[in-house]
Specification:
Blueprint lengths: L1 H18 L4 H20 L8 H13 L6 H7 L4 H12 L3 H16 L7 H7 L5 H12 L3 H7 L1
Helix pairs in contact: 1-2, 1-9, 6-8
């Protein structure tokens, strides 16, 4: 399964970093291998098969992930109640609107971590996390690693 392959790549990046023998290009190679596995997974669920309300909510999240602060905002954009939005996300994506929002934010964070000029706090702020602690906790939940460890592997 792609998730197992992605997890394996993250572990390999971590192991290389722990040994201290990771070459700069090797780290990028592993990272891009991981991305090459992630992108088809994201594209393999055609938006056309989802209800229009859910498509609208997803498009809103993806366009506004740095500014969205509540499920109410997402529901309003999708012209649906908050409870209906939760139901649609659970039924069709097996997740909640906030979990989906956080996944999109963490995916963006992975790209920002490649910039050594940005601190973890700056990345958290840029992606509209309430605190650096919440960002680190969410990042670890989604990726299995802390952002600082993943940054070292890049």
């Amino acid at each position: 399964a792609p998730i197992d392959q992605i997890h394996g790549l993250i572990l390999r990046m971590y192991e290389c970093a722990q040994r201290g023998d990771v070459e700069h290009l090797e780290g990028f190679s592993l990272f891009y291998q991981m991305l090459s596995l992630l992108l088809p997974c994201m594209e393999s669920n055609p938006m056309q098969s989802l209800p229009e309300t859910l498509q609208t909510a997803i498009a809103f999240i993806e366009a506004n992930y740095t500014t969205v602060t509540s499920v109410r905002e997402i529901a309003t954009a999708g012209f649906v109640s908050e409870s209906r939005l939760y139901h649609l996300f659970k039924e069709h994506l097996n997740t909640s609107p906030i979990s989906y929002l956080n996944y999109i934010r963490i995916y963006a964070a992975m790209e920002l971590l490649a910039n050594p000029d940005l601190s973890i706090q700056q990345i958290a702020d840029q992606l509209n996390f309430h605190s650096e602690y919440y960002f680190r906790k969410t990042f670890q939940k989604v990726t299995g690693e802390l952002p600082s460890k993943l940054r070292k592997m890049l």
